[in-house]
Design goal:
The complex is a heterodimer of chains A (281) and B (299). With 281 residues, chain A is an alpha/beta fold. Chain A has 11 helices and 10 strands. Chain A folds into 2 domains: 67 residues, Orthogonal Bundle (Chemotaxis Receptor Methyltransferase Cher, domain 1); 194 residues, 3-Layer(aba) Sandwich (Rossmann fold). The chains are: A alpha/beta (281), B mainly alpha (299).
Chain lengths: 281, 299
């Protein structure tokens, strides 16, 4: 029987540290309540006595990886949306893009290439394409942007290519973008062709060496909340590929509460207001 | 230690007016500050002065019992607070709370949002405190807290005493995505650092606080309190990293390449192994405490 229905701070903090150490993801205090709810379900299902026993199981069992996967899925569910994590998008638009188009070695081709790795149903690559379009129209008319977007799931890719979204996924889209780059389609919204044309979707398995080797050089890679499911060895390999694929002065952007601290020291960590990015120097 | 030349002082007076019109530090805070700096003063003496201001005393106790300190025991009396937290910490706390009465939130023309300003300032102070503790220097936590809280105080003085001039500077900085500091230097020939220093000297603040105010953009120019100033500067950057920055530009920066990092590392080489990402996330969780502190201190 469950006797303790709330998780004390000490248990929360040790679970958080454990999860961070194993996965590089940091659950903020704000996530405590959600974590509590999800773990409580788990406690009931699996017949643990209380939060402490669950924490003990998670930290000392051989099967902790499976359980971590379950927890991530339960806690990070339903977070995909356009303009997800605004400070990262703002840093990309206000800082990274202007920096890149100012670099001497980018002047020959005047092209910015972006990879959205683990693009799911397309919200991220389309967001990046729109933001780039706005930026180019305002400040760099003769530049071109190409967004590549890869995901493991064919079903997700099919939906992405379709480019039709419900209003929940669009809840963070600034009104001027909604008006400019979407067409209302019944209850849904369709991404306009001028944006679709900027994005190329293809199947991509980040852990497949042959596929990773085929990726061409990029200026920016977004890979948000994808690598949390990989163990350290796989993560190191994927991050190494990203490093190789990035051009000098290019940026890797991962989830806003993810960290590569235990994975690599190859990049410089650049902080922007409310966001950080990994830069290849 | 940065000195104010007569020329700069004259320029400042020209812009902000007579220094006598600057706010004064509440008497009790000034006395407590002075007493705490003397090695001969006792807990009893400080308590006696504080008791003359019951509103201030009650705020001190409220903060002492809040999540801000996270004490395990309840602190019901000033004497106990002085014993548990120490005279230095209490005097700095008194100082911090008093700053809010020296700059009350009166209606009137304001270039920038005071609420955000105080969240940034107290955030900088609190982050500096967390950094000092993390680096094994808890005895500095009171000093760096007030240093952080006051580092930008010159901006409030400028906004209140030279409103139109400051509005121009502020607007220009925002439009061009530049630091207010740079635009001040260009337009006035001095910055909020020097204006803050004028106030700090008028208030007779300890040198460490004067330096935190006058050199937080260039901690390498600080004298004896260089470590304190570097910690405040680092905390200021962590505020930016967590989007509670105020008055800076939005440009990216690299912690390990900032001068504050090198200065701190000289004294605390172990900072090299800090997990910057995790520390940034942890500090973000601290913002709630900062807001609680402000609510009590202003309330």
């Amino acid at each position: 029987m469950v006797t303790t229905l709330t998780m004390d701070d000490k248990t929360f903090k040790s679970l958080r540290d454990f999860i961070y150490e194993k996965s590089g993801i940091y659950f903020s205090d704000q996530k405590k309540y959600l974590m509590e709810t999800k773990i409580l379900e788990r406690i009931k299902e699996r017949g643990f006595r209380d939060f402490n026993e669950y924490a003990y199981f998670l930290m000392y069992s051989k099967d902790y990886k499976e359980e971590l996967k379950y927890l991530f899925n339960a806690i990070t569910i339903n977070e995909t949306s356009f303009f997800r994590n605004r400070p990262q998008i703002d840093a990309f638009k206000n800082n990274i893009l202007p920096e890149l188009i100012g670099l001497p070695d980018r002047q020959t081709f005047k092209t910015i290439t972006i990879l959205s790795a683990g693009c799911s149903t397309g919200e991220e690559p389309y967001t990046l394409a729109m933001v780039c379009k706005e930026f180019i129209n305002a400040k760099a008319k003769d530049w071109r942007v190409m967004v590549e977007a890869g995901d493991l799931s064919e079903a997700a890719l099919a939906q992405a290519r379709e480019g039709v979204y419900n209003s929940y996924t669009l809840r963070n889209v600034p009104p001027q973008y909604l008006e400019k780059y979407f067409i209302k389609d019944g209850d849904n919204y369709r991404v306009k062709d001028e944006i679709k044309k900027m994005v190329r979707f293809y199947p991509l398995n980040l852990t497949d060496d042959a596929q990773m080797r085929r990726i061409t050089k990029k200026d920016v890679i977004f890979c948000r909340n994808v690598m949390i499911y990989f163990d350290d060895a796989v993560k190191k390999k994927v991050v190494n590929y990203f490093y190789d694929v990035l051009k000098v002065s290019g940026y890797l952007i991962i989830g806003h509460s993810e960290s590569l601290h235990n994975i690599t020291r190859a990049f410089k960590i650049v902080h922007f207001p409310g966001a950080l990015a990994y830069k290849k120097e | 230690m940065k000195e104010l030349s007569n020329e700069v002082k004259e320029r400042i007076v020209e812009i902000i007016g007579d220094l006598d019109s600057l706010p004064t530090l509440p008497h009790v805070a000034a006395q407590v500050m002075e007493l705490s700096m003397s090695s001969r003063s006792s807990v009893r003496e400080i308590a006696k002065i504080l008791e003359t201001d019951p509103a201030l005393t009650s705020k001190v106790l409220k903060v002492a019992n809040s999540a801000f300190y996270g004490l395990k025991q309840q602190v019901n009396s000033l004497e106990l607070a002085l014993v548990v937290l120490g005279m230095g910490e209490i005097s700095h706390l008194v100082m911090s709370i008093s700053v809010f009465s020296a700059f009350p939130d009166v209606p009137g023309k304001k270039t920038f949002n005071r609420e955000q300003f105080w969240v940034h300032s107290a955030g900088c102070g609190h982050f500096a405190r967390v950094i000092a503790r993390r680096l094994g220097e808890p005895s500095l936590s009171g000093e760096v807290f007030v240093g952080g809280l006051l580092h930008d105080i010159g901006k409030v003085v400028l906004d209140e005493k030279a409103h139109d001039v400051f509005t121009d500077i502020f607007t220009r900085a925002q439009e061009e995505d530049r630091a207010i500091y740079d635009v001040e230097r260009e337009k006035l020939g001095f910055t909020h650092e020097e204006v803050g220093l004028v106030l700090a000297q008028k208030w007779n603040l300890p040198l460490s606080l004067q330096e935190a105010i006058s050199s937080h953009h260039h901690p390498e120019e600080a004298g004896k309190s260089q470590f304190t100033v570097a910690v405040v500067r680092m905390a200021d950057l962590f505020c930016k990293a967590n989007a509670i920055g105020y008055g800076g530009d939005s440009k990216g920066f690299i912690f390990t390449e900032d001068i504050s990092w090198a200065l701190v590392q000289k004294i605390k080489p172990e900072i090299a192994s800090l997990d910057i990402e995790k520390f940034t996330f942890e500090l973000n969780d601290e913002i709630k405490k900062v807001k609680d502190f402000i609510n009590i201190a202003r309330g």
